[in-house]
Amino acid sequence: MSATRYTLRRLAELLLVFLGVTLLIYLAVFALPGDPIAALGGDRPLPASVQAALRVRYHLDEPVLQQYLRYLGGLLHGDLGQNFAGQSVAAKMAVRWPTTIALALTAWGIEIVVGVGLGLYAGLRPGRLGDRVVLAGTILATSIPVFVLAVSAQLLFGLHLGWFPVAGDDAGWPMAYLLPGAVIAVFGLASVARLMRGSVAETMRSDHVRALWAKGLTPRQVVGIHVLRSSAIPVTTFLAIDLGYLLGGTVVVEGVFNLPGVGNLLFQAIRAHEGPTVVGVATSLILVFLVVNVLVDLLHSVLDPRIRHV
Amino acid sequence: MSEVAAQVTSVDAEAPVRGVWRSLRRRPLFWACVAALGLLMAIAVAPQLFAGLFGQPDPRLCDLASGSQPPSAAHVFGTDRQGCDVYANVVYGTRASLSVGLLATAVALVIAMVLGTLAGYRGGWADALVARLTDVFLGFPFLLGAVVVLTAIGSRTPVVIALVLAVFIWPTLARLMRASVRAVRDAPYVEAARAMGLGTGRIVGRYVLPNAIGPVLAVATTTVGGVIVAESTLTFLGLGLRAPAISWGLQLANAQATFQTSPHMLVFPGLFLVVTVLATITLGDVLRDTLDPKAR
């Protein structure tokens, strides 16, 4: 398949998923039973004329499909609705993106360095003690909920040991971001380490590595150059997909560590029961996730043309 | 004729089950997980039997004057801010976590079996439709989806939360089911059943499903742990269960405010949660290794 055709196919898929996801959100939020206009008046019902006027004003008199298209149009223009104070949700989010992106990239970096390192270490000694410890550690890491990990890390490294700031971003990057970044990274890191371990163990058994040993290369050359490079392909695929999840995973961690990012906005809005903000922020996080995934996929297909043929 | 076929393949269908059981029986890890989950299930079914073992057995009998106490003989896990016994609350919270995990997975499994089998066995438009549908659901992180839906829904009973989570976890299981069904669809024994003129329902129910469901069940076991984590995370965010319900997620959410001075409120419910999830994930891994040795 040519590069252009692959790009077009991925974009068409993105469009389909985009429509599906927005329709899902729309139906979940706006089309569930219950009449918000009738509920506005509380105990004293609003006069029928006021209700009718409000319905026209918010386009609630139109068919559901037309309402959905109107919502979709607004979404494409960056309109994510307003919070209870009448402020635009999109504007409130805009200033917070840099924090979230910095946090996600920090987590990504930790995931790559530590995950690949652990996987390499374990894959070079399969079945031995070090390997078993790493494997058990990865299973344990995936079973601890991220908020438990976040609060525990805050307690241990922030409060008792004092290595990192407990909360807030006064210390700036990197100090304020390392601990929360590590907490987000743990989950993906476990998968990276397991993938890398399997991949390295397999490569070490392969014929071309045996040929390299026979050629008389040093362990440093064999492992550092050849094994590392050919084991990295499945891991890069995973890392690419995981970047999107890291962006979405900032919600709990930004909340616990009080970093002023988009996730924290969602965290606070949930606690304050601000429905419109919750839906607006969650929607845009989902859309960013979709776009990042497709971008990463396209980039990946440039780096490794075999992907197009799958 | 079909009776003969049924007898022949029922022998065939049981043989792998017996083989699986034989190799499972020898794995200590399997028995450790079964023991841990069995104990947790017993606690979930009859918490009153376990709450009385140590100190103060009633999770709702709270004494504000003795709040935030560290573990002692009267309260083995200490007390929370309202002076409620943490141990009794952890014991009574088991039911909420386990039932949400099991119910959500069971519902998702049923949806996945129906749609996955339809897509895998029928192929064609059914396959394309299910593929697009799962694309949409797998296109975003499911926690964010659950956040949106739960914000829109006011009620927060365990059943509602389980159903919402089921909506977001069935696609993974459905894809697996589809792949698994496709793998056995054209197996010789299915061809033979078809050649004998058996009805589609009978072929699927008797020959395809029993041979295709193994890997899906293994992953579903792991999913139970994932759902329990998701439920506690949602509760922690303020979107899951609410007081006066008793659950680990709620205990952990309440503990966050005072974890500096009384970490025991965080440690004990957290420990139960982690052990539960660890046991389900490990059990799922062990089952997958046994059912599908190639995937190791």
Q: What this model shows, in words?
A:
- The complex is a heterodimer of chains A (310) and B (296).
- Chain A has 310 residues and is mainly α.
- Chain A has two domains: 26-93, no CATH class; 97-260, Orthogonal Bundle (MetI-like fold), CATH 1.10.3720.10.
- Chain A has 14 helices and no strands.
- The longest helix of chain B is centred in the last third of the chain and has 38 residues, at 200-237.
- In chain B, 74% of the residues lie in helices and 0% in strands.
- Chain B has helices at residues 2-25, 28-45, 47-51, 86-122, 124-138, 142-152, 158-185, 188-195, 200-237, 248-255, 264-291.
- Chain B is built from eleven helices and no strands.
- Chain B starts with a helix and ends in a 5-residue tail after the last helix.
- Chain B is mainly α and 296 residues long.
- Chain B has one domain (2-295): MetI-like fold (Orthogonal Bundle), CATH 1.10.3720.10.
What is the gist of this entry?
The complex is a heterodimer of chains A (310) and B (296). With 310 residues, chain A is mostly helical.
Helices and strands in order, then pairings?
The complex is a heterodimer of chains A (310) and B (296).
Chain A: H1 3-30, H2 36-40, H3 48-57, H4 64-76, H5 89-94, H6 97-124, H7 129-143, H8 146-160, H9 175-205, H10 207-215, H11 219-248, H12 250-257, H13 262-271, H14 275-303
Helix pairs in contact in A: 1-14, 6-7, 6-9, 6-11, 7-9, 8-9, 8-12, 9-11, 9-12, 11-14, 12-13, 13-14
Chain B: H1 2-25, H2 28-45, H3 47-51, H4 86-122, H5 124-138, H6 142-152, H7 158-185, H8 188-195, H9 200-237, H10 248-255, H11 264-291
